[in-house]
Every structure is written in structure tokens, then in C-alpha cells.
Amino acid sequence: MAYQALYRVWRPQQFFDVVGQEHVTTTLQNALLQEKISHAYLFSGPRGTGKTSAAKILAKAVNCEKAPISEPCNECPSCRGITDGSIPDVIEIDAASNNGVEEIRDIRDKVKYAPNAVKYKVYIVDEVHMLSIGAFNALLKTLEEPPRHVIFILATTEPHKIPLTIISRTQRFDFKRITAQAIVGRMKWIIEETGLDCDEKALQVIARAAEGGMRDALSLLDQAISFSQDQVTVEDALTVTGSVSQGFLNRLARAVHEKNAAMGLEALEELLFQGKDPARFIEDFIYFYRDMLLYKAAPNLEESLERVLLDDEFQKLASEVDAREIYEIIDHLNKAQQEMRWTNHPRVFLEVAIVKLCQLENHATQNLNAEPLLKRLEQLEERLAQYEQNPPVAAVQNEQGAQKKPQRVNRKGFQAPAGKINEVLKSATKQDLSEVKSRWGEMRELLVGRQMRSQDALLNDAEPVASSGDALVIKFKYEIHCQMAMENAKFIQTISTVLRDLTGKQLQVLGVPEDQWLNLREKFLSSQQHGEADGNGGSEEDPLISEAKKLFGEEIIQIQD
User: Fold this and answer.
1) Rounded to whole angstroms, how far apart are CA atoms 360 and 489?
2) Judgement on whether residues 231 and 163 belong to the same structural domain of the protein
3) What is the pTM of this model?
4) 304 and 156 within one domain
């Protein structure tokens, strides 16, 4: 092929050309000058950040005829031979397709032979995390103690998949994502060298779409050059990368800020008509507000911005939008993005999200509405202070009376209504209980759906154990939960109402702790057996009532439910 892609033509040939990885290149250059070359290296990092290029540059530098030097000369036969691949002593292996034990054993058998043309035999293993466990085990001993003339350079994008026994035998260098500014600088230099015409803002769009990878950036630039006519414009870059223009994001953010749903939906319709991907758009919109938040917090840190360009419209909008509003917008967009991943209709969720954003309450309006409440609160605080200084006589007397007669605290635990439960058990049927149990899960879902999570939480360790035509007994695992539920009138009313909607029956709700339920049930069954034996169906009397009769006599005891 006569034409080569830009990322192949402009592959770095010196450490100086490796952009954005100075922490790696400087360390390697110092090691070359001091002749402290390690026997094994591990280069890890995202795709397109220069791992394989740095490995080839290191292979040339250690074998350069002018060594020790910090940069390969690229002029001697060794450097030229390694560059064009004609020297067999620098072996590049793709572990993705050569990941078996046999391939690694072949390497292990050949490392003992001296190099033919250069000083060091260098093995560059790309995507080393793809090797099998057996292949890693075959590599262990050779990697730890190779011959003096062998250097291993392992490259990977997923270092967490490499066994620690391999990592501990290498010098590890972590390549980081390249900043957008560094990518733009490199592309500018390539544009100047090739004589192409390209708008600087187009380069910025491409750099942001590359997400830290130089190879991705050069591939997108190559595509934009092919798409454009004479000059690569911003629109060409937006079309190639699938990104949304800054002006469109500003326009949509203005509609959200002004609570203009019609304008927001109109802009969204225009975007989708142009064939933009909804998932890509919502990601760009999230980063837009993320950059706005960072700009408001630190206006001077322009390097931290991922998507936006600091034009006049963006700066004006950032000064008007409150930070708390940005938090809410990002939260809503993030939820919409998660929902869009699992649906066949992402456009619907996107339109709903835009309408929701346009209907968010304005924090400035909230602050204005809060002013009368604050004034009212101040007035109440003043009246309370006056009351404390000059309390009314009746209040003082009541307080003194309360001090003389301290309220008795009931320290006794919760006691289930044994009499009522026995009455339910007498008329309870399996059919009634099965009907309630079959609707139990649906009832709890309705409680959650009606924002009654606190009521639903009390039922986590509870279950229906007996039911008649007009009453229901719920057993609670813990006594404290039973007490909280039965002393909460709203809880009882809510459960009764929901069960009525589901079963069509108005049930009285009774609660009983698990230990008391076992005793009551056992006594009831026992009394039923005795009743049948005696020819009558007598019932068990509440133990509290029996004890009261013993203490005071049946004549003066009056029992009320």
C-alpha cells in the first residue's frame, strides 16, 4: 500500500517524541546513561499511550553502536535494522494470539542462544495479560534469571490480570492518559510538518474525543482529513467524532437554566435529526456540566476541562448557574444514562430527562420564598425568649405539679392482647391465611411504591400467622419491632387499608412477638384439646386477668377491651 496511516508514519522514534510520559522516559534515559539496564520491564497503561513505541525505542537505545546514550541515534545499522524489523534479535510477540505454553517454552529454549547482529536480544511481549496460567508459569524462571544478553519488555493494558509473581520480577512503569493539550501540541507539529490546513478548535475536538490516547487521536485526525475538502473545520471534526458542538451544548444548557422545556426539546430534536447517538450526547452533556462546576470552583485550571471551550456564552452561563443546581442536573443525567443502557428506546429516556431538568425548582426562587419563613422564625424565637423570662402563672403551677408527681415510667415489655388473638384463632381458617400470604409481597411493594419505606421496614422480619374474616395476626421476630408497629396508629391503618384494597376485606391488625406467639398458640391448642375432651370449646383466659382476679377478687374487676 502506498499510503500509511498517520499513527504509523509518525510513530515515535526517540524518547523525546513520546508525548505525556516524561516520568517514564526520564527514568529510562537515566538508566541508559548509567548502564543500569534491568533484565525485565513491565509497561502498563491505557491504549495508544506509547507503551510499544517506548519498548522499541529502548531496544534501539541498548543496542545502538554509540551506547551508552540517552537517545538512539537512528542512523547506525543497528538502529535502522530494528526500526525496519530486519534484525531478528528484537522479537515482537503478540500474546493475544500466541498465548499457549508451547510458544513460551519455545522462547525459553531460544533465550540461551547469543544474539546474531546486536548486543542484546530483546523480547517485546504485547498484551501479555492474555497469556494462559500455564504460559505464565513457564515464563517465571526465565523471566527472573535470563541470560545476560536477554531483555524482556512486557506491555499490557490490564496489569491486574497479570500474576503478582510475574510483576515482582520486573520493573513496572505505568503510562498515563495523555492530556488534551499535549495531544493538540503533537497534532499541530504533525500538521505543520505535512503542510495540511486544520482549524485549531477542530484539533481540540479531536483531542477530547481521543480520551487520552495518541493513536486514537491520530486515527481520528486521519479520518477528518479524508472527510474534509481543503481544510479540517470544527464541523468536520464533530461529524467524524460524533461529538456535539459547543454551541449546541450552550443552547441546551440555556434552555435548562431558563426552564424552557419547549426550547430544550426543539434543540434535542434537531440533534437527533442529525444522527447523533443519544448515549454519546448524554455523556457529552454530563461532562459539560462537570466542566462548568470545575470552572466555577477553579477558573484558572483550564487544563482540567474535558469537553468545553471557554467561549463567552459558556462563561456567562457558568456565572448564572448555581453550583447546587449543577449537582442536581448531573445527578439526573447520570440516572438517565444508567436507564438508557438497558432500554431499546434511549430517545424516550433522553427526552424525559430534558423535561425533568427544565422543571427543576430554581434555588434562587427557593431562597426568596424562604425569607418570610426566616422572619417568622425570628419572631417565634423572640416570643419564646419572652415566655422563658416571664412565664404565665398557670404554666408555673402546672410545672410545679408535674415536679411533685413525676410520671411513672412503664418498664414492662410489650404484651400481646392474648384474648383478642384467641378469638381470632377460634375463627381462623387456612383459606383466609393463604389469601393474605399470597398478597403479602404485593402489599410490601405497594408500601415501597407509596413512599412508605419506614412502614415496610418494620415488616422485614414479620409474617402473617393467623387470619379470619375480619382480623389478622402478624408475628414479629423481635419484640421491639412489634411494640413499635402496634403503638403506631398510622402503621396499623396503612396495613389495613392496603390489605383491604388487595383482598376486599377490612381486617383488624394484631401483632405478637415470636416468643409470645409460640406460648399463645400452644395454650390455645391445648385448651382446644381439653375443650373437645370435656364436650365444650372453652377458651384460655388472659394471664393478666387471672392474676388481677387473684389479687382483687372477681367482684370488683371490670374487664374492658
Assistant:
1) 35
2) no
3) 0.58
4) no
Closest C-alpha among 253, 247, 204, 251 to residue 224: 204
Q: Which domain holds residue 524?
A: 418-539
Q: Are the CB atoms for 305 and 293 separated by under 8 Å? A: no
Q: What are phi and psi of 175, to 5 degrees?
A: -85, 135
- Does a structural domain hold residue 429? yes
Do 166 and 118 belong to one domain? yes
Same-domain check for residues 92 and 53 = yes
Question: Do residues 241 and 220 lie in contact, with contact meaning Cβ atoms separated by under 8 Å?
Answer: yes
Query: Shortest CA distance to 281 belongs to which of 378, 193, 347?
Result: 347
Please indicate, yes or no, if residue 113 is contained in any of the structural domains.
yes
Cα angle: 206, vertex 210, 216; to 5 degrees: 100
Yes or no: say if 288 and 307 are a contact pair by the CB < 8 Å rule.
yes
Query: In terms of domains, do 349 and 440 share one?
Result: no
pLDDT tens for residues 161-213?
Answer: 999 999 999 999 999 999 888 999 999 999 888 888 888 888 888 888 888 88
231, 126: one domain: no
Distance CA 105, CA 123 (A): 14
CA distance 482 to 209: 58
Whether 149 and 121 have beta carbons less than 8 Å apart is answered as yes
Q: Which residues contact 171 (CB under 8 A, 6 or more apart)?
A: 38, 40, 41, 42
User: What values do phi and psi take at 292, rounded to 5?
Assistant: -65, -40
Q: How many domains does the chain have?
A: 4
Closest CA to 41 of 156, 153, 157, 174: 153
Residue 232 buriedness (CB in 10 A; 0-12 / 13-18 / 19+): buried
Contact 72, 61 (CB under 8 A): yes
248-to-44, 46, 181 alpha-carbon distances in Å: 38, 30, 23
374, part of any domain:
no
pLDDT tens per residue, range 230-239: 788 888 888 8
| 220 and 166 share one domain | no
Name residues whose C-beta falls within 8 Å of residue 186's C-beta, 6 or more positions apart in sequence.
19, 214, 217
What pLDDT is stored for residue 121 in this prediction? 92
pLDDT in tens, 297-351: 887 776 667 667 777 888 888 888 888 889 999 999 999 888 888 888 888 888 8
- Inside any domain, residue 552: no
Are 293 and 234 within one domain?
no
